[in-house]
Amino acid sequence: MSPSPRITPQAADPYHEPRREHCPWCGGARLRTRARAAAPGRRGPGACAVDQCRDCGHAFQNPRFTVEGLAFHHRNFSARRLEDLADRSPTRAVRRRHRAAARTVLPLAEPESWLDVGTGHARFPETVREVFPYTSFDGLDPTPRVEQARLAGRVEEAHIGDLTNPWVLPRLYARYDVVSMFHHLEHAPDPRAELHAALAALRPGGLLILELPNPQSVFAMLLGRRWPPYRQPRHLHLLPLANLCEELESQGCDILTTDRRARFSNTYRIVARRHTETS
């Protein structure tokens, strides 16, 4: 069960929530600041910090942006960047990485239905149709980009919102053979709730594929606060591989594969199979 949030009061700030004194993953109180930086721009949300729990290794933005703070950032710094990327086809390196991720499923399943969470313009489903030409791909994204992807024929169904939204999950419950989350969980306000919702969207025996930044990589240790994923306000959470594996196993999943080179890579990947009802 997720620990109850414990936060300390502070002066009213439209851009930040109150600062936490306990880890949002394990509830531990032994925190240290891993990185501190000014947010892009000269005005608005201001400084950002990433704290890490000494007990479980979970790193998180602290204090976290409010809805207003995130909206300011996305409106002023992210929106133009996303629009610039919208019309670009994925690079060869990105397509190669997408195909490699899809091939992790090949020995395990022949999926009929696949949900890509945080799909954006659905470049991942577009690429991996080469590997799974008979699979039906759906996309979920909090922005209208996924509807544009549906109109372009990259996904069969487009769902706008977050997986934990009460109007989204009931429509997707137990529908999919595969659910993928590529660099999505680190942006979720509550990654544990998002993970549970992804498992609920799977049929029994379905596969969950996760890819995330690796806060325990050699590069993270060497670069310290200069490690790119620490740049804020991009990531709300940075989750160690062991924490996610433990949580998945507690939810009735078998861990089928993990990236054996995770310690030497800025990212890691997990493939897990749901074999019982989730809590």
Summarize the SSE layout with pairings.
Blueprint: E1 31-38, E2 47-53, E3 59-61, H1 67-86, H2 92-103, E4 113-117, H3 123-128, E5 136-141, H4 145-151, E6 157-160, H5 169-172, E7 176-182, H6 191-200, E8 202-213, H7 218-223, E9 237-238, H8 241-250, E10 253-258, E11 267-274
Parallel strand pairs: 4-5, 4-7, 5-6, 7-8
Antiparallel strand pairs: 1-2, 2-3, 3-9, 8-11, 10-11
Number of strands: 11
In whole angstroms, how far apart are the ends?
10 Å
Shape type: globular
Radius of gyration equals 19 Å
Our estimate of the beta-strand percent is 15-25%
| Topology pattern, helix = H, strand = E | EEEHHEHEHEHEHEHEHEE
Structural class: alpha/beta
Counting copies of identical and different chains, the oligomeric state is: single chain
**What integer is the average pLDDT?**
83
Largest sheet: 7 strands, mixed
Q: Please bin the fraction of helical residues.
A: 25-40%
Helix count equals 8
Runs with pLDDT <50, length 5+?
Answer: none
- In the sheet with the most strands, the strands line up as 6-5-4-7-8-11-10
